[in-house]
Specification:
Strands 1, 14, 15, 16, 17, 19, 22 and 24 form an eight-stranded antiparallel beta sheet that branches. Strands 2, 3, 4, 5, 7, 10, 12 and 13 form an eight-stranded antiparallel beta sheet that branches. A four-stranded antiparallel beta sheet has the order 6-11-8-9, with no helix packed on it. The protein has one helix and 26 strands. Strand 8 and strand 9 form a beta hairpin. By secondary structure, it is mainly β. The chain is globular. Helices cover 4% and strands 48% of the residues.
Length: 307
């Protein structure tokens, strides 16, 4: 699938339940479009008044990017990280051959929490070795000149936008940026013509490439665009994501990503047997989220269905 597109992706509510006891709004993977560049998963958890207690759980084949909007998220992991991320700070955990982590809301009771969490598929060459973690608190801004109204502002979270590069580690050509527009603004942002892109409307009202996009939805733009026009009447908060098409086979199940069924089955077995592959999350005892039973199907790589 090549060339410009205009495909609206709408969120669906997913109850997490159990120790998490909260709903999220999931927009990726989409049945028709499982990846956008290497971006393969997007949840928004909030805004909710919740006490989040996401016990230690594993990941393979992924980078986990957490971008808080409201409230703090306490992250601990098996590479000895113990940090709180708040608005303007980005957490990025890279699985390597296997990593585990926990995520808690801050405090002893329900708090208002809102955040975006993305998964970014790792190429085969990056799917081995020790996991890593980085937090970035001073991501670079970009001024976006307007065609009409006030100038816009972006924060480059991953990759490069308009000649400005994030310090975050990338393993596949990628871009991710938060964009803020004031009321009555029309502008266009430069795009890498070889990437495919999408724009998520986090808050406010927005037209993306002349199409109205509701809050919580995302417009997939395809590739072969060197710019995209944005317009808002009342003001908007957006998130641009994209990258080079992820050409490798991708099998995703539960918290694992691999190239085939055997990859995710082996990861599940290693987690359930507590083999040591995923380490131990700092600050936790025996608390952990068990893997669900493997379905009685043979997983196949995800394929695009969107025209």
């Amino acid at each position: 699938m090549h060339g410009p597109r205009s495909i609206l992706l709408e969120p669906r509510k997913v109850p997490l339940g159990g120790v998490r006891d909260m709903d999220v709004k999931r927009i990726l993977p989409d049945r028709e479009l499982p990846t956008i560049g290497p971006w393969c998963f997007l949840d928004r958890f909030g805004p909710n008044d919740v006490q989040m207690r996401l016990f230690p759980h594993p990941h393979t084949g992924l980078q986990i990017l957490t971008w808080p909007l409201v409230g703090g998220i306490h992250h601990r992991d098996s590479v000895n990280s113990d940090v709180v991320a708040e608005r303007g700070q980005m957490n990025l955990m890279t699985s390597g051959g296997g990593v585990s982590h926990s995520e808690y809301s801050v405090g002893d009771g329900p708090v208002t929490l809102d955040a975006l969490q993305f998964w970014i598929a790792l190429p085969e060459a990056s799917c081995t070795g020790t996991g890593t973690f980085e937090q970035h608190s001073d991501l670079p801004p970009v001024a976006l000149p307007s065609d009409d109204g006030p100038a816009g502002e972006a924060v480059v979270v991953m990759g490069e936008l308009a000649g400005v590069t994030s310090p975050a580690t990338v393993h596949h050509p990628t871009v991710g940026a938060e964009i803020r527009l004031e009321a009555e603004t029309r502008l266009s942002i430069p795009l890498h013509i070889g990437f495919e892109h999408a724009v998520l409307v986090v808050d406010g009202d927005a037209h993306v490439a002349a199409k109205e996009v509701p809050v919580g939805s995302m417009l997939f733009l395809g590739d072969s665009r060197d710019r995209v026009e944005l317009y808002t009447e009342e003001g908007a908060l957006l998130f641009l994501l994209g990258g080079a098409v992820f050409e490798e086979d991708l099998v995703m199940w539960w918290n694992f990503a691999g190239r085939n069924h055997e990859d995710v089955a082996a990861a599940r077995e290693d987690w359930e047997s507590q083999s040591g592959r995923f380490g131990h999350v700092v600050g936790h005892g025996d608390e952990r989220i068990p893997a669900p039973p493997m379905p009685a199907v043979h997983f196949k790589p995800r394929r695009r269905r969107a025209a």
